[in-house]
Design a protein that fits this description.
This protein has helices spanning about 65-80, 85-95, 95-105, 115-130, 160-175, 195-210; strands at about 35, 45, 50-55, 135-140, 145-150, 190. It has about 230 residues and is an alpha+beta fold. The protein has a single domain (about 5-210), classed as Alpha-Beta Plaits (2-Layer Sandwich). It has a four-stranded antiparallel sheet. Strands 1-2 form a two-stranded antiparallel sheet. A hairpin with a 5-residue loop joins strand 1 and strand 2 (about 45). The longest helix has 20 residues, at about 160-175. The relative contact order is 0.22. Residues about 1-25, about 35-40, about 215 and about 220-225 have low confidence and may be disordered.
Length: about 230
């Protein structure tokens, strides 16, 4: 585990986004089509909705830890078929998304994003197409992962946006650090925001993440509705 002091001081938020932008936010709509992408993590896609996304460095979690998490999640889902009631849904968030976020906050890996020049280039990548391809509502660059609250615009999809951020920033990270290879884990954690209550909980979580120690999930807001 590597937790240098500078890892705990990220302070980036999108300067383009006022506190409340209701006309730019579209929540999950159960009546609209949903795409479900394959992978170890769940990836739901719905056109122009707002997402909470966490993407992480390749060394941010030990592989054996991640493999055990994936297997446990698959077994839990098989034993708890949908639809889920409120208690079961909260159990899922505590066992899986919330635990996943806690592991990231523990500071595994080399914490390359704690280097000021690396942190700055990732921030520039996030902001580059803000207002054009997407609306970046909130973001925080942590030591070994990045949190964003983002709404794709027009015909742009989240997967395309994530690929652009990762590809560009990985190339730049290798350039400034004198390294080679892919720096980011291929899969990201993403969640379609369900309602205004959950949106504000996630926004607060991202802003407070550098100093957060409580382990409270941003997805477990009252009245999230599934």
């Amino acid at each position: 585990m590597n937790t240098p002091p500078s890892c705990s001081l990220p302070d980036f938020h999108s300067p383009h986004s006022p506190p409340h932008i209701p006309h730019l936010i579209r929540y999950f709509d159960a009546s609209e089509p949903v795409a479900n992408l394959s992978g170890n993590l769940p990836h739901w896609r719905q056109a122009n909705t707002t997402y909470f996304v966490t993407f992480r460095l390749a060394d941010s979690l030990p592989q054996e830890k991640l493999r055990a998490w994936v297997q446990e999640r698959e077994e839990w889902l098989a034993a708890h078929p949908e639809p889920h009631d409120e208690q079961t849904r909260l159990e899922y968030y505590e066992l899986f998304p919330e635990r996943f976020q806690r592991w990231l906050d523990a500071g595994y890996g080399a914490c390359a994003l704690a280097e000021p020049r690396v942190k700055a280039l990732v921030e520039r990548a996030l902001l580059h197409f803000d207002g054009e391809r997407y609306r970046l509502l909130e973001a925080a660059v942590m030591p070994n992962h990045v949190h964003v609250l983002v709404t794709p615009r027009g015909d742009h999809w989240l997967s395309e946006i994530l690929h652009s951020w990762k590809s560009y920033s990985s190339h730049q990270m290798n350039r400034v650090r004198g390294t080679q290879g892919e720096n980011w884990q291929k899969e990201s954690f993403d969640h379609i925001v369900r309602n205004p209550n959950q949106l504000e909980r996630i926004r607060e979580y991202i802003r407070d993440n550098p100093k957060r120690r409580s382990g409270v999930s941003p997805l477990r807001a009252a009245g999230d509705g599934g």
